[in-house]
Amino acid sequence: MLDRLGRSARRGAGEFLYSLGFFLSVVKESVLLVRRRQVGFRVLVMQILFTGVEALRISAVVAIAIGAAINLIGSSLLAEFGQSRLMYTMLIIVITRELGPLLTAFIVIARSGTAIATELGGMVVAHEMEAYVSVGVNPISYLAAPRFLGVVISMLVLDVYFNLFGLLGSFAVVQLIKPIAFEEYFRNLAAVLRPGDLGMGLLKALVFGVIVSVVSLYRGFSVERSSTEVPVAGIRAVGSSFMLVILADVVLTTIQYVG
Amino acid sequence: MKFRIRYADRVVGLFVLVALLALAAGIILLGANQRWFSRDFHFTTRLDSAAGASPGTPIYLKGFQVGKVERLSLNEGNEVDADFVIFDKYYPKVRENSVLELVTSPIGLGTQLLFDPGKSDAVLKEGSFIPTADSPEGRGLIEQGLVDIPPKDDTITRLLADVSPLLENLNKTVITVDRTLTEVNRAVAGRSDTPLANILGEASKTMTKVDGIAGSIGVIADNLRATTTAIRDPTGLIPRLLDAKGSLKTLLDDKGALYSDISSSLAELQASLKNVQEMTTSLNAQMPSIAVTLDEGRTAIKQAQDVLEGLKNNPLLRGGIPKKTEQESTYQSMREGQF
């Protein structure tokens, strides 16, 4: 039993060090990609297109729905307690600080995390990686770095859009049900918005983007030879990404409130 | 080729650009709200205590926030040095002889820092010292009428204004209650002829009677207490009587012996009474004979009296009855004689 435990710990430590090395390698290649403006730049643009632009619609719908719900609760339920102004605080907390980055991360995981893992896994099975290496192209530099940057940038941009739709788009929806003066709404919203709220939202989006992209890339590259490993890699990418994103969210929220 | 793929660069560029513009707008809005782009004018003051004030505490003038406290520190003389700023929009209000007021709500609704502008036309230079209203310097300025102290139209003052009518009503109520109590006291003392006084008089009489009854009740209660104590006493008469092996139990549970005895006694008593009744009846029947006998007896006695009277008066028989000599007893011991 001790032998098994020792082997398991050694394997876990080895895997952790390997993944850490993979992460550092991806970061290094990403920095070089920006500096060199290599051919991988086109891959980056396509990645932003797939991860960001194409996810915008669903992200907007979710943001408007949540924002409208908070608006309606704030303007009806909270008014009964004489706390209508708390609606703006709730909007900032939910849309900007907490749910915005988290829901954006979930959307990206569901759409792009699986796609990246299965795509890279398929390339490994099809020996495309070996072909890249054989012609002197670093797969990390050409395949991983643009995807990493693409997912991170998309996460940040999608988070900004989520805020935009959640705070302003929802206002437009609520106008159809319960009109509020735009100036009053905007002024009250600005009064409760703090730099920390905006900063924390963007920081979470950045961290979640890094987690989703690195985990998906790592799972994709983990495929060895069988095509049956490809869907497994996709599932593992989703599971690991969800877990790590939630853990990171808890850690960041704790730091924000306790620190 | 799909439009998006064909113009991917432009689509992505637009996607990122709009986001950057929105972010920039948000940051500018935030900055404007946080006064990142406005100039603040710094001043200093000295407070007795920092209680209720802290960095960031707003400074108000007629309900408008004109500035805020930036820093508080305890100096060598155990006074609190405060650095505060006045927003550029309100800087022209900071004139000579201005004072600061730290107003604490008497009913615990918090503390407010108020700015009272001076009546001078000269604007104070940035970095100047502005005294507080409770400092000797500030009091001097206020007494001289150099400070424009606006009426306190804050929430606390409004609350106090609302409290005043309530206090007035309360005062009226207290006066009414006082009058009523005076009348009641007069009625109780019997110095009034109002219905209340009559009622109280009757009530007083009733109470006197109740006092008498209460005395009796007291005696009854004492007896009851004594009885209760006797019942509680395990060696007392009542427990012994009521005990399962007590006398009462024995008397009541003797298989009818007691009842039989009582019944027989009553039968005998009844028989005796019957005899007495018969005897009485017989006696009643003999009553006329007895009456005649008694009457004849009386007549005989009267005649005997006459005979004896005649005998007494008869000269022949006078002195006829010899004198009786008393014979001494011969039963006497010889030894007791005079030898």
Low-confidence stretches of chain B: none
Distance between the termini of chain B: 193 Å
| Major beta-sheet overview of chain B | 6 strands, mixed
Classification by helices and strands of chain B? alpha+beta
Structural class of chain A: mainly alpha
Major β-sheet annotation of chain A: none
Count of separate structural domains of chain A: 1
What is the radius of gyration of chain B computed over CA atoms, rounded to a whole number of angstroms? 63 Å
Beta-strand percent range of chain A: under 5%
Helix content of chain B: 40-55%
Residue-averaged pLDDT of chain A: 89
| Tally of separate helices of chain B | 8
Q: What is the rounded distance between the termini of chain A? A: 42 Å
Largest interface: A-B, 21 and 20 residues
Q: How would you spell out the order of helices and strands of chain A?
A: HHHHHHHHH
Task: Give your account of this protein's structure.
The complex is a heterodimer of chains A (259) and B (339). Chain A is mainly α. Chain A has one domain (41-258). Chain A has helices at 2-36, 40-53, 56-80, 86-125, 128-134, 139-177, 182-192, 195-222, 229-258. The mean pLDDT of chain A is 89. With 339 residues, chain B is α+β, with helices and mostly antiparallel strands. In chain B, strands 1-4-3-2-6-5 form a 6-stranded mixed sheet, with no helix packed on it. In chain B, a hairpin with a 6-residue loop joins strand 5 and strand 6 (111-116). The longest helix of chain B has 57 residues, at 257-313. The model of chain B has no long low-confidence stretch (mean pLDDT 81). The interface between A and B is medium-sized, with 21 and 20 residues.
